[in-house]
Amino acid sequence: MIGLGLRLAVSGGREAVVRLLILAAAVALGVGLLLTALSAINAVNAQNGRHAWLWTGTTQETPGQAPAGTDPLWWSTSADDFAGRLVVRVDVAATGPTSPVPPGLPRDPAPGQYYASPALASLLRSTPADQLADRYPGRMAGTIGDAALPSPDSLYIVIGHTPAQMARTPDAIAVTAIATRLPGSYEGGMKNPDGLRVRPPDEGTEASGIDLVLSVVALALLTPVLIFIATATRLSAARREQRFAAVRLTGATRRQISVIAAVESTVAAMAGVAAGFGMFFALRIPLAALPFTGEPFFPADLSLSLPDILVVAVGVPAAAAVVARMALHRVRISPLGVSRRMTPKPPGAWRVLPLLAGLAELGFFVVQGRPATVPGQIQAFLPGFLLIMIGLVTAGPWVTMAGARVMADRTSRPGALIAARRLADDPRAGFRAVSGLVLVLFITTVAVADITTQDAKDLHPIGGAAAANVLVDDLPGRPLPPAHGRTRHPAPAPPRNLPASLLARLGRIDGVRGVIAVRADSAVSTLPGRLLGPGVPAGVVSCAPLARVPALGRCPAGAAAVAFPRFLDAAPSGRSLERITWPAADISARLLGGLGLDGIDIATDGSQSAVEQARTVLENASAYPTLGTPFTLGELSTMQNSLNNAYQQLADVVILASLAIAGCTLAAAIAAGLADRRRPFSLLRLTGARLSMLRRVVALESAVPLLAVAAVAIGVGFGASAMFTSVQLQHPMVAPGAGYYLLTAAGIALALAVIAATFPLLRRITGPETARNE
Fold first, then answer.
1. Of 115, 273, 552, 728, which sits most exposed with the smallest number of CB within 10 A?
2. Which phi and psi (to 5°) does residue 444 adopt?
3. Whole-model pTM?
4. What is the distance between the alpha carbons of residues 593 and 595, in angstroms, rounded to a whole number?
């Protein structure tokens, strides 16, 4: 039987070969996407593992076991920035030969030496020293290995100092081991015993958090692919059933027919599995460059474990054999089952129950609240969305039947009546062709609505577009309290005035247009709520320099100083400052210079040269102790929204890929339907039916279920998104913009174009010779 099945799989001429190729292509696409999803989860875990060493010195660190007698290592981490990219700086000082060594380094850097990541080393060589290299003391001793770098693009530097220098460094600590594992959870603010938030500059992504995203992505991609595979399996279904029925009449048993069908499908599935593995390995390098966690992967991170390989290599062909066995139920009933054609039983209203169950499951968590852990959230939301997608597929035939009956009641045209009658008789077959596209519309609606809501929730450019090029630098305003069990040094007190040398160096930079000193005044604590909202801390600034920076607002006429946001980078997002008139401060210019300095805001022309030179000057000013790295307001907004932007790119890929898969499913289903009905259509033409009427029948048989079920899918998508965003994002759903509606209209128009593209096939297969030869 296996040999006969192999012969029958390829002996049906061009039609059999084409069917096998399409089925193999569908399986290859599904396998490739499945392998990509599995390897992406492995890559996230591998990438996160290389963030672990940066958690050294935090209260929730997970260090390795330090050998007895280990010399301490002075340790301090901080963030820097270059051209909007994060630079992670680690300052260390070994106190002896057994001090721990960070991963990726051959040894601890000696005083006056540093190790840089390959990407940062390349920048140091190609960038003028006054824009980058002058920030880091010493000379490069080598590069940091991949074991310490989450990404090929990571900008990391480890700088060596003497123990005496590090002992005077604010918030430096002595450690005896380097962290080797990430914290179990990033939630709860990661506060140290003093109640202060302590996190490394590049903390990585919670693996459990990204698992939720990847789980939804895998579901969104694989479901249309499974429908494509099922559609490809049914190509030439009528001819295959007739052929198998003839074999049954010659004496073959049901079990033998099942074996033949399983062999035929398994051959295509095995070829598809091999092609899918080849597709995955061919695309692994370009896929690694997609920064959906905020940074690209090393290609080796996109790896597969042995269980991953076995599950795909064995499970997919086995599933194809099961599908083939289920598809031949009529032949397995009796040899004459194919001839006994009758109107199938109409679908019942019970088919909407899975859809309602999925919505009810999401609604339960709207009332109950989301689970506290991310794995619990995956278990809560993923079944709901899976039930909804299953419900759309099961309810589709019932909705199609209802649409067909409405069309039959409202039309008298022959083509529309024929299409309505065929859809009402077998709505399952009518819906099957558009089921993939319906799911894509649901996926698109959910993805766009969720991302639009997240965009509304996230921070937006602070100070407005005109202020994006303002470089902000805050100064420490108070000593840090002692930590429990740690050596901690108080931060240096803020200076009273900007050093003249600092002002002179900033003034010589081409592109710096103004410097505003923000000072603390006990008489001005917060700004009026009408300006930026309640509770915004305020300082005072002089009106003379503010007049040279119109992007930051203006002074009232005659005022010498005004109340101004004390920390501009902490002002509410999305608020434009250029039209604000700040309230006058009751202080003279003479007294203003005696107030403590909280920070400075530097207006630039936005050029990389001006921004980076000013940043270097600020970081190297010994008389001007910075609290952290200076950032432009535009860079700050970009960093705060980087992960959401990466998710949006991922959603775009999912939508476009799903749309392409659904288009292939639609084309294959329509072509298969035409091939199975070429004799009835050719007989209609012989009786005088026009080709245009047959085209109208084909178009309506696909367009009616598409439009009817699409309306349900879009409505359900908005409902599911409203519940998901209110629970998971803690924000009411925000309606998508015009782009979503244009995308939806374009998708439906593309589907109609695919239907129209099959019309030339209708002319070829409905000629008189078809009726004679069948």
1. 728
2. -65, -45
3. 0.73
4. 6
